[in-house]
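User: I'm putting together a teaching handout on how multi-component assemblies are represented. Below are the sequence lines for each component of a complex, exactly as they appear in our records. Could you produce the 3D structure of the whole assembly as C-alpha cells, so the students can see both representations side by side? Please keep the chain order the same as the input.
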Amino acid sequence: MIRVALAGNPNVGKSVIFNSLTGGRQKVGNWPGKTVEKREGFFEVDGEEVLVVDLPGTYSLTAYSVEELIARNYILEEQPDVVVVVVDASNLERNLYLVLQVIELGARVVLALNKMDLAEASNIRIDVKELESLLGVPVVPTVAPRGLGLDELRRKIIEVARAKKQATRLAYAEDFERALSLIMEHLREIAPLKRFNARWLAIKLLEGDNEVVRMVSAVPEGKEVLRHVKVVRRELEERHGDLELALISERYRVIKRIVERVVSGEKRLEASDALDQALLDKYLGLPVFVSLLWVMFQFTFIVSAPFSDMLGDFFAILSERLRGVTGVSYLDYVLFGEYGVLNGIGTVLSFLPIIAALYFVLSLFEDFGYMARAAFLMDRVMRKLGLAGQAIIPMILGFGCNIAGVYGARIIPSEEDRVTAIVTNPLMLCSARLTAFTVIVAAFWGAAGGSVLLSLYLLGVTLAFLVALALRVFILRKSAPSPLVMELPPYQLPSLKVAITQMCVRASLFFRKAGTIILLGLLVIGLLATTDSSTFSFTLDVERSVLASLGRSLQPVFAPLGWDWRLVVAVIFGFIAKEIVIGATSMLYGVAEDELPSLLSQYYDPVTMYSYMVFVLVYTPCIATLAAIRHETQSWKWTAFTIAYEVALAYVLSLLVLALGRALFGGSV
Amino acid sequence: MRRRLYELGFTEGASVQVVKSGGPGPVVVVVRGSRLALGWGVAMKVLVEVVE
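Assistant: Of course. Below is the structure of the complete assembly, with chains in the same order as your input.
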C-alpha cells in the first residue's frame, strides 16, 4: 500500500482535492491525543491501493501550533511515501513557503497547483515546466471542483512513490550552507537520529527549534552536537540577528527567485477588490453581513423543514403500526414505544436535514470567501467584548447546533480565545432548543411569538458576551484577545459540488456521533418512565414511575420558579438532548405533543413559562455538546466549568425574570 | 507574533500594499500577492517606508 499525506495552506482547496481523490471511501477521527480532526481515505490506481491522510491546513511547519506540529510530526515520524502539497496557483509566492519546508523535511513531494482557473482569471501565467525544474519535484496543475488534473495527480503520486527517491535541495546563501554542512558533519555519527533528514535537523538546530533541540539533547552524543551548534549560531547571529527570522527571510529570498522566473503577468483582482470595497465598507459592511446571516438562517430552516417532518412522521407511524408485535411489554416498549429505538432513530434523522442544510449554506459562504470577511467585520466589536473576531463564526454555527459551534471554534488561533468561544457557545440558542421553544411560544403568545423568540436569542448572545468578559477578567486574566492576523482569500464562485460533499460528510458525522447519544437518552427516559417506582415492573402509568418520584424529590428546589415535578423531570432529561424537553413534558402530562400547548396554558401563566424558557436556554449544554467541549478543550475541568456556571446562571436568571415579570405584569396574565 | 508575520511574508524588504485602512479597525494589506487582514494594533507595529 502506498501512503500519501496531503499538506497545504488553509483556503487552497485541499479538502476538495482530498474528497475528489478518495470519493466516499474515507473515515474521520481525531489525531491521537489532539483536538484536531484527522481524515483518512483510500483510492486505487491500477491495482495499487493508496491511503491518503489529510494533514491540518497550515502556513508553516514550526513547533508553535498544534496543527503545524501534527503535520510536521506525521511527515517526520510516519514517513509517508509521497507528500502532496496543494498550493493556490493564484497565490504562489506565499504558498511556496510551505512547499520549501516540506522539501526541507526530506519528503518526496508532488505539487498540486490548484485553482489554475482562478490564476488565469486574475491574469497570471505559470511556467509549469520551469517550476518543476527549479523545485525538482513534479508539478500537476489542477482545478479540483471540476476534477481537472486529478488523474494526472494520481499517476504522479504512484510514479514518485515507486521511484522511492527524490533528491532535491534548495540552496540558501553561502554562509548558511556552510553552517549547515558543519552541523550535518557532527550529526552524521549519531545513530538514533539517522532516521531523520540530516539537513532538516541541521536547519532546525540553527533556528533553535525547541522540539528538535530537546530531541537531540536526549541522545547520548547530543550535548556535544549542541555545543558545536552554539558556536556556529553565535557566529551567524552576529551577521544576521535572530536566526529563525533570518532563515524565514532566506526562504523567501529563494522563493522570490523562483517566482520571478516562473510567474508572468500582473495579478489583477479588480472584481475581488471592488467587492471588498463594498462588503468591507464602514457603513455598508455590517448591514450586508446581517442580511446575509438572515438568508443563511432562512435557508437552513425553511429548506430542511419538510424533510424533517417527513422523516419524523414516517418513523412515528411505523412505530405505531408495529406496536404490540412482540407481545412482551418491556421489549415492545423499547423497540416501538414513544421513546423506543425506532422512534429515536426517527428523531435523530429529523435533525439531519437541518444540519445538512446549515452546512450546505455555510460551505457556499466559506467557498465564496465571505467567512473571512465576516471575521474581519466583526473584529472590532467582538474584541471589545472579549472575543476574537473569528469567534463570530462558531457563534453563527451555534445557532444551528452547539456541537457545530464548538467544533467550528477551531478556526480561532489562540488557545485562550478558543476556550472562551467554546465555553460560551452553548448560550447560543440552538435549533434543538428552538424546536422546544416554538411549541411553547405558539401556545402562549401566538402572533407575537416571533418577538418573544427573538428576545431569547438576544438574551443568549448578551450572556455569551458577558460570560466571555468575566472569563477574561477573572479566570484567564488576559488583557485582550490575540490580535487579528488573517488571510482574506480572493472571492470566487462557490462550487455546488463542494457544498454537497461537505453537507454529506458533516451530516453523516452528526448521525454517528450525536445519534447514539440522543437515542440512548430517549431510551433512558422511556425506561424510567415505564418502570414502577415501588415494584420495578413495567407500568404505563407515568405518575407511578421512577422518573416521577425523581422529579417529585427534586421539585422543592424549583418551587420558587413555580414548576411542578413534571417540568423538573423534563429539564433533567433535556440534559441528554434539549429537543427532548417538549416530548418528555407531553409524555409526563399524558397527552399527545400537539395537545401540549393548550394544556400548558391551563397550568401556567406566560411569565412562568418565559422564565422556564430562560432556564432551558441557559442551564446546561446537552450531553453531545459536552462531549464536543471535552473533545475540543481536552479538559474535564472546562467541561465541568461549563455545566457549573450555566446551571448557576440559569437558576439565578430565571428567578430574576420571574420576579421582574411579576412586578411588571402581576400574578397572572 | 513577529515570527508569524515573517512567515506570512512580512520579511525585511518585502513590499506591502495597503488596500483598506479605514481605521481604527483592521486594515487589509497585500503582501507577497496575498491579502491579509491585520488588527489595527498589529498593523501599527509594522515598520514601513513609503515607496513609489
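A couple of points students might notice: Strands of chain A lie at 2-8, 26-30, 37-45, 48-54, 82-88, 109-114, 125-126, 139-141, 263-264, 485-487. The CA atoms of residues 180 and 202 of chain A lie 6 Å apart.
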